[in-house]
Amino acid sequence: MKILGIESSCDETAAAVVEDGVTVLSNVVASQIDEHRLYGGVVPEIASRRHAENISWVVKESLLKANVTLDDIDAVAVTYAPGLIGALLVGISFAKGLAIAADKPLIPVHHIAGHIAANYLTHPNLEPPYICLVISGGHSHIIKVCGYTKYQVIGKTRDDAAGECFDKTARALGFDYPGGKYIDEAAKHGDPDAFKFPKPRIADSEFDLSFSGLKTAVINTVHNAQQKGTQINRADIAASFQHVTAQTLCERTIAASEKTGIKKIAVAGGVSANSGVRGEFERVCAQKGYELFLPDMKYCGDNAAMIACQGYFDFLSGKRADSSLNGVATLSLDKISEN
Fold first, then answer.
1. How far apart are CA 273 and CA 188, in angstroms?
2. Which residues 6+ apart lie within 8 Å of 36 measured at CB?
3. Ranges of H-type helices in the chain
4. 45-74: burial string, b at 16+ Cβ within 10 Å, e else
5. Quick one: CA torsion of 139, 143, 273, 270, rounded to 10 degrees?
6. Considering only CA atoms, which of 87, 96, 210, 93 is closest in space to residue 158?
7. For residues 315 and 78, what is the distance between their CA atoms, to the nearest angstrom?
8. What is the chain's mean pLDDT, rounded?
9. DSSP annotation string for 208-270
């Protein structure tokens, strides 16, 4: 079974063809990073316009690279939530028109479910149940994956997402957008114990996350040094920040694993590409004897292969959409979970 996936929730216009949920025949991504870098972050209106310009050729290229035609496609899967509403609507509108014109089923896919599914592309042997940490610029969730289409959100951020914190820390340090890769690279040359930044904690929840206090502590450290005219070591700040963030994410995820008794852990989303985060999970999981699943780097960020993969499982579960499908800017994964 071949699924055409379409992703346009933020600033990547992507299309992919995936066979039987695990075999990637093509995965095309048109990035807008260079343009948004001028503004220090994603500008929603610009993102929507670029999606409209790119969507047609990206889908055509994905079919060409997969060496298939629309006749060979069994269904069209598209991200419909959550995300930037204008950006979502471009992909949804195109997918609806394509599905109607080609007389193919339309499958609505939740973006976070797609990130979770990215691990199936790298680890076809991964089976639920397991605990998955989804970390990106807009999301930080600890999820119990009960089945391929059934989820329970155990913990989530109360304020900033981990990826957002990386970007804003990078901006304070004078790095370009997106900041995550610059923090990661600088951290390799710094001392993770140079600065004692606070480890975020939530008093009334053992699994929820919070990064606003950590972000503020880093920014204040940088600003105080600038006001005093003292030199700051960007590598040390980057290393210290990355270290405490990785520890926090890993500790909360391990706690959820121990609470549920599930000793199988996956990590997904853009921040799962961070070497500090990956290293911390590898170290702790090896120490505790837990199974750890990390996606290939090419599937960490937004892409359509993960949407096509999840679309395959949603298709098998009977999930379908009609021409009334609309975009949803905010939608908890709990709300779409199969009963």
1. 14
2. 11, 42, 43, 46, 47, 177
3. 33-36, 44-66, 85-102, 111-122, 162-172, 180-187, 212-228, 234-260, 275-288, 305-316
4. ebbbebbbebbeebbeebbeebebeeeebe
5. -30
6. 210
7. 12
8. 94
9. -B--HHHHHHHHHHHHHHHHHT----HHHHHHHHHHHHHHHHHHHHHHHHHHHT--EEEEESG
- Given a cut of 60, whether residue 165 has pLDDT beyond it is yes
Tell me which amino acid residue 168 is: K
The predicted structure's pLDDT at residue 205: 80
Cβ-proximal residues to 31 (8 Å cutoff; 6+ apart), any chain? 11, 12
- The amino acid that residue 73 corresponds to is I
What is the spatial distance between Cα 65 and Cα 2, in angstroms, rounded to a whole number? Answer: 14
Q: How far apart are CA 87 and CA 54, in angstroms?
A: 12
> In the numeric block, which tokens belong to residue 313?
């499982």
Residue limits of CATH 3.30.420.40 in the chain: 2-116+300-336, 128-296
CA distances from 207 to 27, 47, 133, 151, 231 (A): 34, 33, 11, 16, 37
Residues 263, 291 contacting (CB under 8 angstroms): yes
Q: For the chain, what is the largest distance between any 2 Cα atoms, rounded to a whole number of angstroms?
A: 66
- 3-class SS of residue 312: helix
pLDDT value of residue 339: 44
Q: How far is CA 271 from the centre of its chain?
A: 7
Nearest one of 116, 199, 186 to 151, comparing CA atoms = 116
pLDDT in tens, 96-151: 999 999 999 999 999 999 999 999 999 999 999 999 999 988 889 999 999 999 99
CATH architecture of the domain with residue range 2-116+300-336: 2-Layer Sandwich (3.30)
Please tell me the distance from the alpha carbon of residue 58 to that of residue 35, in angstroms, as a whole number. 18
CATH topology of domain 128-296: Nucleotidyltransferase; domain 5 (3.30.420)
